Amino acid sequence: MDHPKTDKGSFDEWYKDLPMKQKAISERLNGYQSNVHLKTKIEFYKLLEIIKRTNRMHSIEQEIEDYIREKNEQLEFEIKHKIEVMRKAKPSDNLDVLKTNKFTHLFVLIPKSCRKEAIADIQEIISDMRQEGCNRHYIMFVVFLNLISVVYHGLFFKLKGYFYPTTEQSKNN
Amino acid sequence: MSFNLTMQEMKILSALKTQEMYGYQILKEIKSKILLGSLYNSLKAMERKGFVKSYWGDETGQGGRRKYYKITALGSDVFESTRNELIPLFGLNFS
After folding, report:
1. Percent of chain B with pLDDT over 90
2. What is the rounded average pLDDT for all residues in chain B?
3. Is residue B94 part of a domain?
4. Virtual CA dihedral for A116, A119, A122, A123, nearest 10 degrees?
5. How far A48 CA lies from chain B's nearest CA (Å)?
6. What's the confidence (pLDDT) of residue B61?
7. Residue at B2 is within a domain
């Protein structure tokens, strides 16, 4: 049976080369398949790497969280301890409270504007004079003088208008 | 230019120029026999004028918290100008 000829040759010729062509096609297909396999392999390894990295990050984050928690607990403990120490301490050790001793009743005499600092300074004067070995009566005299001066300067200038009305009037004018 | 500064106030300013001090410390520094009331009065007057600033310190002394005073920029300028006026007049030195 004669087959019609085409531009690419006769059917017999084409048929003769068929096994070769099939082989080439199958080889090409295998290659393609192997390429696909390699690509998926690479992607898998990449994914594995990413998973590993995320796992590592997660562990680092956990470590940081643990560290922060530990530090917070330590700080809380220290603060609680400090508060307990402050509570147990005498009122004099507290920064906002003055020593409760015989000078406390002088609060009434000394003007409010310089009450705290005046008492602190007077007590320092007394301790200084005691260290120098001064006589008790002399210390009392000096303290009395200082106290009187504080009271005088604190109160008298407020009453200046009452004692010297003409001077105050001229000032106002 | 006059700022109505007394001699005592000048002494206090000169003491405060070196460092910040509390009341009794200033009293010891200026070495003149003045009483606490007078010192507080001068300090309050200068604080009102803006020559010094006060704040409560954290440390406690013998009695309680100390109130510290420090010289302001205005106070420093006033002190310098007054000193420069007084030196040629009376030959005074506050440093």
Report:
1. 14
2. 83
3. no
4. -110
5. 59
6. 61
7. no
pLDDT at A92 over 70: no
Please give the Cα distance from B52 to B74 (Å, whole number).
8
**CATH code for the domain of B53:** 1.10.10.10
User: In sequence order, what are the beta bridge partners of B22?
Assistant: B68
Mutate which: A113, A117, A143, vs B, most B CBs within 10 A? A117
- Inform me whether the C-beta atom of residue A20 falls under 8 Å from chain B C-beta atoms: no
What are the chain A neighbours of B65 within 8 Å (beta carbons)? 95-96, 116, 120
CB atoms within 10 A of CB B23: 24
B:50-69 residues touching chain A, CB 8 A cutoff: 58, 60-67
| Domains in chain B, number | 1
Domain that holds residue B50: 7-89
DSSP annotation of A112 reads: G
pLDDT digits (tens, 9 = 90+) for B24-48: 889 888 877 888 888 988 888 889 8
